[in-house]
Amino acid sequence: MSLVALWVIVALVAGILEVIVPAFGFVFVTLAALAAAVMALLGIGLTLQVVAFAALTLLLLLVLRPIFVRRLGPGVPERTEVLKGKLAEVTEPIDPVRGTGRVIVEGHDWAARAPVPLAPGARVRVVGADGIVLLVSPV
User: Fold this and answer.
1) Dihedral (C-alpha) 51, 54, 55, 60: value to the nearest 10 degrees?
2) Domains in the chain and their CATH numbers?
3) How far apart are CA 137 and CA 121, in angstroms?
4) Residue of 112, 118, 117, 116 whose CA lies nearest to 132
5) How many CA atoms lie within 13 A of 77 on its CB side?
6) pLDDT in tens, 83-129
7) Which of 8, 20, 95, 101 is the most exposed place for a label (fewest CB within 10 A)?
8) Residue 95: exposed, middle, or buried by beta-carbon count in 10 A (0-12, 13-18, 19+)?
9) Which SS3 state, helix, strand or coil, does residue 5 take?
10) Residues ≥6 apart with Cβ < 8 Å to 28
């Protein structure tokens, strides 16, 4: 297998990983691998290809990634983020030891946890979330 093909394979794998893993970093590995493939096509030695690949990957990550992340913004807010600060009603007892309980927030049923036991009917405020489990505190 030629070095050009090897670098193209590295670029393809990194490109696929960029789509699968939302880290916004593999795209720079892809670009660096394509640059190394061009170097291999021009007959430049393997050592220089590897050094250029590593240096370009690092440079792109350190320089371009922060610019793109800043311009693209924080991303899509989580579904639970908009619920912070909202009032809710406990529908199933919240047991802090077992980590069980449910609340109704704006007409929707959610799993919930609290630092203290809460009985059905208690009014609570959403203070955060752990994944899709709301963290609540008594009002």
Assistant:
1) 150
2) 3-72 (no CATH), 81-138 (2.40.50.140)
3) 13
4) 112
5) 7
6) 999 999 999 999 999 989 999 999 999 999 999 999 999 999 999 98
7) 20
8) middle
9) helix
10) 56, 57, 60, 61, 64, 65
Torsion, Cα 47 53 55 60, to 10 degrees, reads: 170
Higher model confidence: residue 1 or residue 51?
A: 51
Q: Which residues pair with 126 in a beta bridge?
A: 136
Let me know if 31 is exposed, middle or buried by CB neighbors in 10 A (0-12, 13-18, 19+). Answer: middle
Residues for the chain: how many in total? 139
